[in-house]
Write a structure and sequence with these properties.
2 copies of one chain form a homodimer. By secondary structure, the first copy, chain A, is of the alpha/beta class. Helix content of chain A is 46%, strand content 14%. The first copy, chain A, is elongated. Chain A starts with 5 loop residues before the first strand and ends with a helix.
Amino acid sequence: MTLTNIRIVLINTSHPGNIGATARAMKTMGLAELYLVNPALFPHVRADEMASGALDVLGKAVVTDHLDDAISDCGLVMGASARSRTIPWPHLTPRQCAEKAILESSQTKIAILFGREQSGLTNEELHRCHFHVEIPSNPAYRSLNVAAAVQVIAYELYVGSLTPSTSVWDYDYAAAQDVEGFYIHLERILVALSFLKPEAPRQLMTRLRRLFNRARLDVMEVNILRGILNAIEKKM
Amino acid sequence: MTLTNIRIVLINTSHPGNIGATARAMKTMGLAELYLVNPALFPHVRADEMASGALDVLGKAVVTDHLDDAISDCGLVMGASARSRTIPWPHLTPRQCAEKAILESSQTKIAILFGREQSGLTNEELHRCHFHVEIPSNPAYRSLNVAAAVQVIAYELYVGSLTPSTSVWDYDYAAAQDVEGFYIHLERILVALSFLKPEAPRQLMTRLRRLFNRARLDVMEVNILRGILNAIEKKM
């Protein structure tokens, strides 16, 4: 399971119900490791109620006094943030956050931090993160409940874990200048073949550019295509 | 705004807190139209508390006695369902549900139904739906809180509404037999050019197939490519 190395960290949560709802959100999406930094009330009957069938996640939750103790063993730390900060920080969408977490989870432990109900994460806490994650939201009302925010991120993690990882490609993408060199060569050959009439080019090269750009040529493919053009030139 | 025609319908909700949390989840994602079919307790102070800054959504919520009154003006009805049913029904992921809703929202009103906390939607209610929507979840614990489920679907709707709709293409996809005809023609020309050696073909045609299949050729592009091959043939 790719999600076992991914930890949810709630910081200074005021309402125990939100801790329980977070545990439930986590368990529905296959996450099990919950850390609570300095919660106002925990354990608490309201947390148990809201956890519903995820009491096991609550029962294993680790309570710490300081953020350091919740992330010290993690090689990747990401923090949920709704606010744009004065110093720009590397920023991910929930989907990008999930891709990154799943990609790295075989190599390192990962923490995703969620802040206080009223004020989120402090600047100091955000500066402890490698990346900030922003859930897209209505500009007129961005205030997701903390457990709802965990649900969205956990959902993306779970969906991401179901998708087979992008297959490894055998060659690098071709550099733009090499692709451009191919287009110039192609155009010259099409003119020599009298297929492209320079006085009436219509949309021919535009259509061919759109086709090959859509495919995103790799290095080997550009070599093959240039090789074909050379072979045509030699025959003529 | 593409989301104004999309309505959330909660059926027989037991806990007023879940109604409030649903209103909040909706507003964070730009949804405003909430219908409540036969809620156990509404209005209720617990709903107001959980709605936080989304009291306006709660205030405009429409309460009905029957599902019919909540969906009668809707041309597309989708229902959240965790269970597989005896009669298979057309099924969508949350992302597919969002794509469909956004695509159709300019033409019709759309309802997305969420059932009871304990038992979800009844079979009869599910049979009123054009599609069922299933949120992927941990097989060992699929029980999302109803407001959390609304949050996930609303998140996909909002993210989908931010994405520019797929640009209209100018030509249809080429039929498989026409693309195959192009490959056969291409191979013949490459042999005639002595670029492809039938006794040592290596991976050449495989690589070219992978390239053009990746791009998904349209009808016009196949015509252009066949035209180029004809022009080469004529020159030789």
